[in-house]
């Protein structure tokens, strides 16, 4: 079977969706699928995988991004493939898999970040004037409303609800294939070494409770709400709690904020790292008070490392978390009180052990291998029901 895959970027450093795609490629190739990949990245081809870089003559990065789906579709017309699987809303997709969720939900949840009605109105106006946003919304709507309809892969129940709510997309054309990550194969010795190394690097004692956040977009992933929660914890002299915030965003603004709030002894901004798994091993729990995540890779990775986590209902990964059993789920990132209560509960080692044991019992549900096997079955089903659209 030969599949054309359209994906704008293949660079893991860009974020979780790109990292997930790269892991998926390794597994689907291992299952015997031959790939023709159309992307803006300049990556080398490999056995079973031919990479075609789709270039744009435009010097503008925004315009290049806007033109990519149609340019990739034009390039795909010249390839002899059984199916077209697209991560972006390409007009030629037989299978559309919006790993980043729908464009419409992305726009809506970015509006929710604004705390005042005036700020939301200004952002709404900016979206309406944005050529990129209008183009992305138009492409997605055109693809979802075309005849014949594509099969749409939802990486979570949350994404399935988005498709139905924003576009009235028929559930009969949605296939739920929950997201996945590679297992954490580190042994006890490696975990212990990572814990000692990371804590020494950041001057955190072995007996101190350490909560981590991992995010590139600090606003969207709720860093401010976590700082608010830590302010409350500090003000009321709750149990000792330290936090590391990991990500590539410039931390200067956030460092000034935490200094002004007197949280310098509680919070450090660790910057980007290639050793995220080592930070999971060093931590006692993960905090992810996100405003929007179709299915957070960070949460799934932390669970794969048997690390309890706190996330929100606006994270598709929350569907594998039973609140209070194998983690915590709060209804809204704006409910700082709920975040405080869960974080304080997780300063208790017995609570963490109980939740970590429960996390260990659901690891088979979140592997990328399972995800790739389900995608292969979907490829076969689409081919057996008529193939290319």
Order of helices and strands: EHEEHEEHHHEHEHEHEHEHEHEEHHH
CATH third-level topology of the largest domain: Rossmann fold
Q: Please write the CATH class name of the largest domain.
A: Alpha Beta
What is the CA-based Rg, rounded? 21 Å
**Major sheet: size, sense and barrel closure?**
7 strands, parallel
What number is the mean pLDDT? 92
Low-confidence stretches: none
The appropriate CATH architecture of the largest domain is 3-Layer(aba) Sandwich
- How many structural domains in the coordinates? 2
Q: State the oligomer.
A: single chain
Helix content: 40-55%
User: If strands are numbered along the chain, what order do they take across the biggest sheet?
Assistant: 3-2-1-4-5-6-7
Number of helices: 14
Name of the CATH homologous superfamily of the largest domain: Glycogen Phosphorylase B
Structure description:
- The chain has 2 domains: 2-180 and 368-384, Rossmann fold (3-Layer(aba) Sandwich), CATH 3.40.50; 188-366, Rossmann fold (3-Layer(aba) Sandwich), CATH 3.40.50.
- Helix content is 44%, strand content 14%.
- The chain contains 14 helices and 13 strands.
- It has 389 residues and is of the alpha/beta class.
- Helix 2 packs parallel to helix 5, helix 7 packs across helix 10 and helix 8 packs across helix 12 (336-345).
- The longest helix has 17 residues, at 368-384.
- It is globular and about 65 Å long.
- The strands form 2 sheets. A 7-stranded parallel sheet has the order 3-2-1-4-5-6-7.
């Amino acid at each position: 079977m030969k599949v054309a895959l359209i994906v704008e970027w293949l660079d893991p450093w860009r974020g979780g969706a790109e990292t997930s795609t790269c892991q998926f490629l390794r597994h689907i190739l291992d299952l015997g699928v031959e790939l023709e990949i159309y992307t803006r990245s300049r990556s080398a081809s490999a056995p079973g995988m031919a990479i075609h870089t789709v270039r744009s003559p435009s010097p503008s990065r925004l315009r290049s991004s806007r033109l990519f789906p149609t340019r990739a579709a034009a390039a795909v017309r010249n390839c002899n493939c059984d199916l077209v699987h697209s991560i972006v809303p390409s007009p030629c997709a037989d299978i559309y898999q919006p790993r980043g969720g729908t464009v419409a939900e992305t726009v809506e949840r970015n509006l929710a970040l604004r705390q005042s009605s005036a700020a939301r109105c200004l952002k709404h106006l900016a979206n309406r004037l944005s050529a990129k946003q209008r183009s992305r919304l138009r492409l997605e709507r055109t693809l979802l409303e075309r005849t014949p309809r594509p099969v749409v892969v939802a990486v979570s129940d949350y994404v399935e609800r988005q498709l139905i709510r924003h576009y009235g997309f028929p559930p009969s054309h949605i296939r739920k294939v929950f997201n996945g990550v590679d297992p954490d194969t580190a042994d006890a010795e490696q975990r212990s070494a990572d814990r000692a190394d990371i804590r020494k690097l950041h001057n955190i004692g072995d007996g101190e409770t350490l909560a981590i956040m991992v995010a590139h977009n600090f606003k969207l992933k709720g860093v401010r709400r976590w700082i608010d929660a830590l302010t409350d914890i500090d003000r009321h002299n709750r149990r000792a709690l330290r936090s590391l915030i990991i990500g590539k965003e410039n931390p200067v603004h956030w460092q000034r904020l935490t200094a002004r709030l007197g949280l310098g002894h509680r919070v450090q901004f660790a910057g980007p790292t290639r050793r995220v798994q080592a930070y999971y091993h060093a931590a006692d729990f993960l905090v992810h008070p996100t405003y929007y995540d179709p299915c957070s890779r960070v949460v799934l990775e932390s669970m794969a490392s048997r690390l309890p986590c706190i996330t929100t209902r606006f994270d598709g990964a929350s569907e594998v978390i039973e609140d209070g059993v194998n983690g915590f789920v709060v209804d809204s990132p704006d409910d700082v009180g709920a975040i405080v209560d869960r974080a304080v509960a997780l300063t208790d080692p017995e609570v963490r052990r109980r939740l970590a044991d429960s996390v260990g019992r659901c690891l088979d549900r979140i592997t990328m291998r399972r995800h790739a096997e389900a995608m292969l079955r979907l490829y076969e089903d689409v081919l057996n029901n008529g193939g290319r659209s």
